## 1
Amino acid sequence: MKRETVEAHGLKFIVAIEPDEEDGGYVAHCPTLRGCWSQGETVDEALTNITDAIVGCLAVPRSVLQKAEEEALTLPPNKKCAR
């Protein structure tokens, strides 16, 4: 796993990047922002995409995130969530 630092809205975030064993390319996520994931064909593309994802995550109001988390926790056991 490779760790990089990206900047969004004047803040620095550590992101983790690793090869996508299933589909090829790379998967990136920001541990600071739970659920903030992206991917790319190259490491550079994954970094660009995770930076965009971080900007999007920062734009979502906390109340919306809390509601989504509550709903995710109440999914019926036979339903699957996409990653």
Note: The domain at 2-73 is CATH 3.30.160 (Double Stranded RNA Binding Domain).
## 2
Amino acid sequence: MAFVVRAGHAALRCARNASANSRDAASFRGLFHVLDDRLTLGGVGVPRGRGLWFRDQAPFFTATKGNSETNEEGKAKEGASTSEGSSTDAEPLDAAELQASLQEKHTQILQFEEQIAEANDKVLRTLADMENLRERMNRQSENSRLFAIQGFVKGLLDVSDNLHRAADAVPADFKEADGSEIPPEKILSLLKSLHEGVVMTEKQLLQVFKQNQVVRYDPEGDVFDPELHMALFELPDASKEVGTVGAVVKMGYTLNGRVVRPAEVGVVRAP
């Protein structure tokens, strides 16, 4: 009996150590049935419960066998997949296809390089155009600043010429004489000519002002406005309304509606 028990225990240890091998597990499962029969039916003095214990270990080996078979199937499938992948990866490429692919990539690279060169050329041209435009705008701005009043000055040239003619119209003997030697009628004729020339010159000057949006205004009789008038003195005058402009010393001028010089005036006050 002791031998059988020791054999059963040894078989159990071996079975557990060999559980990964499905064939050994099946063999030891059969051995447990034999031991169980000998312990329970052979008249050996072993309790029934201990003998049945060997039989109860059968499910353990059954499960072990199933797991082992499953593991072996998985390993087999993995091996097959690995073999297939290795065979696929190891499949040599066709030389003609490889050459065609390389040629296609080379053509694409050449096209990209051409596009890059074209884009770079456009960028450089654009930068050059922008630099030229900037320099041209700077020159125009500087010229505008320096010659902004060129048209106005050109209009004043005729006024200057007329004033020069008026000065030359006076004879030399008139300039040197004290007046007693010049006949009165000649003096009156000269004064009349000078007056007409001055009036004509003033009209011409006002025309030049108008062309350049310069307007002269005479505020006499208007209500005093500190935005347009500069009061120099007060003028007592009962015939005029108090607070109005009674006398104009200098007329005012505006440029595009903005006062360039306010009119210098005398304001009427109560006598």
Note: The longest strand covers residues 229-236.
